Amino acid sequence: KTVARVEWYLKEALPLFLLGTFVLFTLDRLRLLDSVVRAGRPLVTGVLGLPAEASSAFLIGFLRRDFAATRLFDMSRAGALDVVQLVVAMVTITLFIPCIANVFIIAKERGWRTAAAMAAFIFPVAFAVGGLVRVLMLGLGFGGRVDDTAPGRPGCGARHLPAVWPPVLSRRRHVQGARLPALLRNMRDAP
After folding, report:
1. Alpha-carbon distance 27 to 20, whole Å?
2. Average pLDDT of span 5-20
3. How far is CA 3 from the centre of its chain?
4. Which helix (H) or strand (E) is 6 found in, with range?
5. Contact yes or no for 92/57 (Cβ under 8 A)
6. Of 39-43, 68-72, 167-171, 173-177, which gets the smallest average pLDDT?
7. Which one of 42, 59, 107, 110 is CB 3.0 to 4.6 Å from 114, fit for a cystine?
8. Mutual orientation of helices 83-95 and 65-77 as an angle, nearest 10°?
9. pTM of the model as a whole
10. Mean pLDDT, to the nearest integer, of 65-87?
11. CA dist list (Å): 1 to 6, 8, 15, 109, 176
12. What one-character-per-residue DSSP string does 15-35 give?
């Protein structure tokens, strides 16, 4: 059974993935990908509230989602994304169509019309949900950066690590700019 699946992957999925990669490579060489990134920047910066550099991560995410996640992780480690931005970016990337090879497989099995209709539905929904998550998180008071170098606290000096859930931070870390509701603040400070 495993051999049959590997054989299917090599015959069906791999050529489509290579075709998608070739299409993106060609667009890059023709300098058309830069135009796509620039066109997406207002959506990425406006609706999602992410830095303009995240636009390229979303485009890479259409090639391979894990590449986009890695790029966003690197941006986060460099301090370019705060907690809210990281969660919004990951939610949006998760809701995308997994990759360009998937679009080609859908087109092969269901036709280009169905593949285009699915993409036309999925991409706006992913951005809308990402924007909604941003508004909800900011409205609930999540945000800020985790800083190990807060006054009177030991730390390594240059790290800004994102926290997925501020109440479970260790006591060594200090949350700058977070406006946690009283209940969550009490949970964070509990022993």
Report:
1. 11
2. 81
3. 34
4. helix 2-8
5. no
6. 167-171
7. 110
8. 180
9. 0.66
10. 88
11. 9, 11, 21, 22, 53
12. HHHHHHHHHHHHHHHTT-HHH
